[in-house]
Amino acid sequence: xxxxxxxxxxxxxxxxxxxxxxxxxxxxxxxxxxxxxxxxxxxxxxxxxxxxxxxxxxxxxxxxxxxxxxxxxxxxxxxxxxxxxxxxxxxxxxxxxxxxxxxxxxxxxxxxxxxxxxxxxxxxxxxxxxxxxxxxxxxxxxxxxxxxxxxxxxxxxxxxxxxxxxxxxxxxxxxxxxxxxxxxxxxxxxxxxxxxxxxxxxxxxxxxxxxxxxxxxxxxxxxxxxxxxxxxxxxxxxxxxxxxxxxxxxxxxxxxxxxxxxxxxxxxxxxxxxxxxxxxxxxxxxxxxxxxxxxxxxxxxxxxxxxxxxxxxxxxxxxxxxxxxxxxxxxxxxxxxxxxxxxxxxxxxxxxxxxxxxxxxxxxxxxxxxxxxxxxxxxxxxxxxxxxxxxxxxxxxxxxxxxxxxxxxxxxxxxxxxxxxxxxxxxxxxxxxxxxxxxxxxxxxxxxxxxxxxxxxxxxxxxxxxxxxxxxxxxxxxxxxx
Length: 482
Fold this sequence. Notes:
Layout: H1 2-50, H2 57-70, E1 77-79, H3 81-92, E2 95-97, E3 100-105, E4 108-114, H4 119-122, E5 130-134, E6 137-138, H5 144-151, E7 158-166, E8 173-182, E9 184-186, E10 191-196, E11 200-205, H6 212-225, E12 230-234, H7 243-251, E13 259-265, E14 272-275, E15 287-291, H8 298-308, E16 313-316, E17 324-330, E18 336-345, E19 371-372, H9 377-385, H10 408-418, H11 423-457, H12 461-481
Helix pairs in contact: 7-8
């Protein structure tokens, strides 16, 4: 009995201690938040009463909400009613616009990928292009959602984009272009397929939308009928899309009870595992997955899962590094909230997400290929531009164009599947190419530095010195021959 009384007193004392020590801190934190809210209300009232022009309170509050969400990351977003509606259309796979996928990179609205067959694609807009003006309106200080809003409009209307393009040699954005596009309703072609020599099937997946899996299954069945013995799955410039689409795609090629991806957030309820549940129909076909810097999100889930499970070799360049999971919540008045609630990890525990705001971590994140093949984006996009020449006739099979553009990444994949190239040989070639490129870059940098110093001082001595040394050597050689 005595022990029970002691325990009761102990519990009571511990409770009082907890309340006495921790409650003031909790209250102080809450009180600090309330003071900030009070300040916000004061600012809002002062602006409303004293600003030089009349203000719209709803717009001010909407702007404040966007500011709150904007402090989190580049992917969380407050969606106004029209944007929320457009987002729902986007994930279903049909929407209106110019056919362009965008990311915010280094503070610029940047093209991730134009969608084949769309106005943006036909106009020659390329991945990596920076959009600076929309209808002559500067968007450099806008959030991504605000810039996208300016590009949207009624079907049939036109929009002018002013873009800067990177010089492939210097790496600087120097070329300025004005492109006028006519908005249209877009139902994108999401899968292209063809048979390569040696019974190697090839499938290019544009994105992960509501139509992707249906089109992919049809492509695989058609290639199988043609005698496919191995497969190249091309996810280059694929910006991702639906998580379920990525999981379903991986299930086609992986064995039973294998991990595809898992998500982990601050709350336990956001921890979720995605595994295969049965034997896959294409679990044994040799595969190579192609990726590049434009492969993001769902593309990285698929390539990471196949790579970690030793199911496929990944070739190309390091992927974009978008590994955050957004939950879209409906809000009152038809608005919505897209909020990052978790990040996803490959089966081996690799976090794919890059920290875009911390430049010291710019070399972290993304899926690194087993076979690295670095290609200039301007050259690589020419490969995909060819798909714009596919001829569609109602009731007839699409006629594929002749693919004449050089594609070093695909060539390496084919060589590997044919057995003409081992993984080790491919890695050695990639390392040699990397060293050669770095040496050329270093040499070019030294030459540019000498030229810059000469131009700055007006001194031609370095060049003259080199010339004199050459003449002296030639003279010395001549004396010896005499």
